[in-house]
């Protein structure tokens, strides 16, 4: 199998792959229903629910395979890579395995005593897969970020740092904004005028979890490391800087960035990036 390599691989696969986000709800709901029906079937009047639980478990296992494969397709075709992706893939693979084993145990193909722990593990893995997947699509810690501080403390989690008033990219900027930042040759210019543009228009696709074209724009070091075709900024030479070329292309051009045409740089903003590169592309 080809592991995800962080590049885009063709639109039809990505089209199919994106349905992972829809499909995954099927095994999730089926699997969570199984123990509920199992418990209900303990009452003699509701014995038949036990059969239903068996059928749902079989369907859940089938859908686990389909969903896991589609998820792999998404990761491979959609430019995902990184530890978060690997973790989520493990969660999906283990879940598919646990679900299948639980089904086999329930049918008697494995010792029947293995069924309760297996189904418990499978349901646990549903939550782990959901958590790791949620972090991928909504950002790290999406489910726990707004957890009341007391509950976090109770669970031994670190408190959430207070977000700076103006959003993620700006803490450095907020400190350094001042007369020095006006001159593009000064290091502070990057933090105040350039980084926030990337944060607004580019990091949705160019960050550690999703580096399209092998490029990350979330930090200065990543920006200067460049993408799969090499450096995207050539200090002192705006004309040779691939990044600047791309943000100036008309949206209809295949190379144009942002590639989805969302929140493009305004002429003024392009001018600022141009000045900054011309002045040596420094950062504080
Ligand atoms: C919707 C997703 C998306 C957004 C938003 C986006 N990009 Fe990209 N970017 C891509 C994809 C996909 C590629 C790889 C395909 C290609 O090279 O065109 C890429 C490649 C690049 C490359 C070439 C990297 C290399 O070495 O091949 C540069 C430079 C770039 N983007 C800059 C930017 C900048 C600057 C922004 C913000 C203005 C931005 N991108 C916003 C999807 C995006």
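-> sequence recovered:
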């Amino acid at each position: 199998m080809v592991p995800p390599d962080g590049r885009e691989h063709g639109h039809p696969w990505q089209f199919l792959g994106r349905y992972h986000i829809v499909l995954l709800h099927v095994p999730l709901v089926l699997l969570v229903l199984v123990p509920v029906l199992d418990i209900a079937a303990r009452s003699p009047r509701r014995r038949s629910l036990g059969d239903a639980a068996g059928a749902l478990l079989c369907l859940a296992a089938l859908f686990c395979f389909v969903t896991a494969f589609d998820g792999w397709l998404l990761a491979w075709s959609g430019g995902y890579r990184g530890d978060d992706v690997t973790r989520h893939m493990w969660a999906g693979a283990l879940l598919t395995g646990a679900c299948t084993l639980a089904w086999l145990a329930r049918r008697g193909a494995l010792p029947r005593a293995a069924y309760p722990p297996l189904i418990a593990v499978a349901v646990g893995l549903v939550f782990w897969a959901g958590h790791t997947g949620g972090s991928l699509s909504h950002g790290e810690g999406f489910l726990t970020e707004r957890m009341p501080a007391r509950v976090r403390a109770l669970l031994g989690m670190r408190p959430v740092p207070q977000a700076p008033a103006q959003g993620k990219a700006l803490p450095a900027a907020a400190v350094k904004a001042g007369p020095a930042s006006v001159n593009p040759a000064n290091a502070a210019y990057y933090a105040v005028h350039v980084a926030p543009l990337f944060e607004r228009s580019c990091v949705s696709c160019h960050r550690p979890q999703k580096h399209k074209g092998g490029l990350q724009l979330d930090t200065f070091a990543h920006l200067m490391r460049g993408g799969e075709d090499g450096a995207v900024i050539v200090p002192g030479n705006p004309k040779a800087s691939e990044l600047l070329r791309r943000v100036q292309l008309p949206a209809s051009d295949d190379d144009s960035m942002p590639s989805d045409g969302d929140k493009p740089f305004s002429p003024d903003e392009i001018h600022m990036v141009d000045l900054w590169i011309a002045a040596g592309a420094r950062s504080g």
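The pocket of heme C is lined by residues 8, 79, 201-202, 204-206, 212-215, 226-229, 232, 242-243, 246-247, 255, 257-260, 265 (CB under 6 Å).
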